[in-house]
Design goal:
By secondary structure, this protein is mainly beta. The chain is 9% helix and 36% strand. Bound molecules: 2-acetamido-2-deoxy-beta-D-glucopyranose (NAG) (2 copies).
Length: 283
């Protein structure tokens, strides 16, 4: 008995010594896209960011949370007031996101200017919801902190409601309940950069939604052409007949259900990013 308690005590102390909140590089095992991510283990919720290697006016973001969480949000300027606030949730299987703002500590209203688009792999399975989005015209604004520092540490804000969905939950601009948890974290946006930002954007656009039972099993990431066991019709391409249509760099060249071009341009190879999306990437 004493031994069991001693064991539990050691585990408890170890758990205490590890912070529940971290900012680190996190690679999504489904799409293989890597984000710089703030993760709060106590609520199993993450806020990830991916920036182009040369600063532009956009970034890609991801929210992951248990399926019952009401909504998840980020302030692009850290504090709540006068900065763009992105609010997202999954209603059933449908992901929703909007950009809002408020000058007061009051419910924020939808705004125009920043443009958010839901990307593939968003949705919900039995346990989790995830919203992957592209945010364009999102790095500067008037008021608040005025913009995102894309060259070093930047304060983002985060907020969530533990269990109440916005009402009505099928409207992206629905009224929300006040957050049950909110704070800020510092994230180095240089660490969040990717030299293959555009390729990853295309990959994410083409990844199917998360559904119950998903995400699907990944077959491969490292082979050059289609070596998977998926029923793609052109696996034996070593004939000398005229080549088929050529896909453009970063375009799709294969994957389950794909019937478009499977040839990549000179200097590029077709690489499986996941079962559903094979992409022309530089050789
Ligand atoms: C970008 O957003 C700002 C507000 O932050 C807005 O004034 C401007 O019109 C937007 N630009 C475009 C091209 O949408
Ligand atoms: C549900 O999705 C989450 C997030 O993508 C994933 O971590 C988890 O393994 C999935 N659960 C099941 C049962 O597929």
């Amino acid at each position: 008995m004493l031994a069991i308690f001693g064991f539990l005590l050691v585990i408890g102390l170890q758990a205490l010594s590890v912070s529940a909140q971290t900012v680190s590089r996190w690679c999504d095992s489904w799409t293989n896209v890597c984000f710089q991510r703030f993760y709060d283990a106590s609520i199993d919720t993450g806020w990830g960011y991916l920036f182009p290697s040369t600063p532009r006016t956009e970034f890609i973001g991801i929210f992951t949370a248990p399926v019952g969480v009401g909504w998840v949000g980020t302030s692009l300027g850290g504090g709540m007031r006068s900065n763009p606030l992105l609010l997202a949730w999954v209603n059933g299987q449908t992901p929703l996101i909007s950009v809002r703002s408020t000058a007061q500590y009051a419910p924020p209203s939808p705004i125009t200017g920043p443009r958010v688009t839901i990307l593939g792999s968003s949705g919900a399975n039995a346990t989790h919801q995830r919203i992957v989005y592209r945010c364009e015209n999102c790095t500067t604004w008037s008021g608040g902190t005025g913009g995102i520092n894309q060259n070093g540490n930047h304060m983002f804000g985060y907020a969530t409601h533990a269990n109440i969905k916005p009402s009505p939950p099928n409207s992206a601009t629905a009224g929300i309940q006040r957050h049950t948890l909110a704070n800020q974290f510092s994230l180095n946006t240089v660490d969040a950069r990717s030299t293959t930002y555009d390729a990853q954007l295309t990959l994410l656009v083409n990844t199917p939604p998360l559904v119950p039972g998903g995400p699907p099993i990944i077959i491969t990431t490292s082979s050059s052409s289609s070596t998977s066991t998926t029923p793609i019709t052109q696996t034996s391409t070593s004939t000398s007949t005229a080549p088929g249509p050529t896909q453009s760099l970063y375009g799709q060249c294969g994957g389950l259900g794909w019937s478009g071009p499977t040839q990549c341009p000179v200097g590029a190879v077709c690489r499986a990013a996941n079962n559903f999306f094979h992409q022309c990437v530089p050789a």
